[in-house]
Amino acid sequence: MLLRTMIQGSILLLCVGSVGAQVAVTGTAPPPSKDPIDIKVQEALRERDAIIRNLLERVQELEWRLNGDLATHPLNMVAAKPVSGSAVGAISSAVTSVKNSGYDTDERQASAALDQALILRGGLLVPPGTLEIENAASYFSASSDHVNINGFALLPILVVGDITSQRVREDILLSSFTTRLGLPHKFQFDFLVPYGYNLSRTVDANNVQTSTSTFGMGDIQFGLSRQLTTEHGRTPDMLANVRFKTTTGVNSFDLGSATTALGSGFYAVQGNLTAAKSNDPVVFFGNLSYTANLNGSHLIPANDPTNQNAMMVGHFQPGDAIGFQLGSILALNPETSMTIGWDQRFTRATTLNGASIPASYLVEGSLRLGASYLYAPGKTVDLTFGVGLTPDTPNLQFSVGFPFRVSLFGPKGRLPTH
């Protein structure tokens, strides 16, 4: 928008200057003349007209690239009009100069770096007909200390019974394979396959350590996104997303332990609403989400003193979750952008056979810092570092992703995005 305003201002100044030149010389359009001074003036006016045509074609070209849903290239629109061959050649050369200009190349690269960071954070869709594939690896480190009292208290400082403590340290290395496909009419389909390794170490009061580990696939997710509004004036980009999570991952009920699961064991449906507003060179974004965890039944220990191996069916109703995300993306240069954001989520308590499970109400909050680097056309490396600031959040989070794009289909005559 800033570039377009500058170009339009330049065109206005050129037009005003040209009118003044014509009035100063003849008062009207200059007639053909053999006077050397008139010839020079006419040549200057022709150069002025060529510059104006170049600027106009540059504006049309930039508008066409921003409005990716247009199916007609500016050259095709020009060709549809009955103009002379020399005019078409002039316009073609003007568009070619715009396409190949260094400033426009830098602008496209800067836009690509910012856009890629927004796409990874759900604030922008990939162009129609583009398939983006991302292979990411994430590391999570979590720790917790538990103190259990088996007895009763006579006074605040006197406890009758056994006191046991546990220190739990959990390391998770999770890889994910994500695909995003841009569809017509501002839709996008995405598919996520997580797989990884989970190591849990527990140290009791006697300093005896036990370790359990799991390797396998997590819960597969897929979703559909739709861009509701496009940024103009005070209106931001608005995107809606609905996501469904399966139960393909090994869960704690299958393993008999809640510390080594890669899957939750419950289906879930999540809705997201994301807004993004640019203020060059910064883009602000926000996200509001609601997750409905569907109920399910699993076998659990019956706690029968006469039969230690007895099992019973437990009917679970996982608590729903509501969360939000706030952040900004700053373009440092045409290839690099940095992100800072805050994630917050509140999860209601889970019930088992109608009774609330203690300590199942969760409050998660983390501060995230990220950076994206466009090292080649269509190829990016994305780094994210997170610090958990609540007891229910992993202490340390780190991820690195390598998304790249492949063009599958698109409107006829469309210019490549990279």
How would you summarize what this structure contains?
This protein has 418 residues and is an alpha+beta fold. Helices cover 24% and strands 48% of the residues. InterPro entries: FApF (IPR025737).
What is the overall shape?
elongated
Main sheet attributes: strand count, strand direction, barrel closure: 12 strands, antiparallel, barrel
Q: In DSSP terms, counting alpha (H) and pi (I) runs of 4 or more, how many helices?
A: 6
> What's the CATH H-level superfamily name of the largest domain?
monomeric porin ompg
Organism: Edaphobacter aggregans
Signal peptide: 1-21
Keywords: Signal
Pfam family, one: Phenol_MetA_deg
Written account of the structure:
With 418 residues, this protein is of the alpha+beta class. It is built from six helices and 17 strands. It has helices at 2-25, 36-66, 74-79, 85-100, 102-120, 252-255, and strands at 130-155, 158-183, 187-204, 209-217, 221-229, 237-245, 268-279, 282-293, 296-301, 311-317, 321-333, 336-347, 351-352, 355-356, 362-376, 379-388, 396-407. The strands form two sheets. Strands 1-2-3-5-6-7-8-11-12-15-16-17 form a twelve-stranded antiparallel beta barrel. Strands 9-10-13-14 form a four-stranded antiparallel beta sheet, with no helix packed on it.
Secondary-structure topology with pairs:
Elements: H1 2-25, H2 36-66, H3 74-79, H4 85-100, H5 102-120, E1 130-155, E2 158-183, E3 187-204, E4 209-217, E5 221-229, E6 237-245, H6 252-255, E7 268-279, E8 282-293, E9 296-301, E10 311-317, E11 321-333, E12 336-347, E13 351-352, E14 355-356, E15 362-376, E16 379-388, E17 396-407
Antiparallel strand pairs: 1-2, 1-17, 2-3, 3-4, 3-5, 5-6, 6-7, 7-8, 8-11, 9-10, 10-13, 11-12, 12-15, 13-14, 15-16, 16-17
Helix pairs in contact: 1-2, 2-4
